[in-house]
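Before the break, one more example. Copy the sequence into your notebook; we will annotate it together after we see the structure.
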Amino acid sequence: MATRRRWKLLAFAIMLVGVVLGSVLAYGRFGVQRPEGSPMNDAHIMVDHVHVATDKPFEEVTKAFELQLGKFDADVRMAATASDDTEEAKARIAAMAGPSGFMLFGTNDHGALLRLAGQKRKAIQYIVGNPLIALQMTQHDIRASLYAPLRVLLYENEEGKTCVEYDRPSSLFGQFGDSRIAPTATMLDRKLEALVAKAME
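Here is what the structure looks like once it is written out:
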């Protein structure tokens, strides 16, 4: 009787292993696939996050920040890239940049959104960049376009200080391990640092 019970338990265990193994094989067969056909894989990267704070009022910092940015115009970019004159096209795009070398692509007022949660906060996310700078990287690796344009967050913290936060470009673009991209990414580090420093003067 005990022997029969052991055989039943063993059979049940084998059946469970079969179900689990079948599920694993099915996932491998039907799971998410990249276009090339290889299984999707994840990569972990180290990102340098920058945080700076000042006693300068939020409104003054945002105003000084915005004054250094040009205004991106999608119509200008579309007309320029449709032109057969490459140099003229680049000149038209370059003309949209502000003193910082960046142009503003858009803003997200997260402070206003937080009112829906009953909070009063000052927080604006800026989307900034320069298509010609991005081109210096994407021509070597199109994946660099994942981080172009860049994002910068300006907000007022609980102590009333104005804070600026962003991820350092060289650490974002550095994951691609391309020596042709690295100099441009490092240059973006310097440009962002200068932009923020000027806004906080």
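Strands lie at 49-54, 70-71, 103-109, 123-129, 150-156, 162-167. The two ends are 87 Å apart (CA to CA). Try to locate both features in your own notes.
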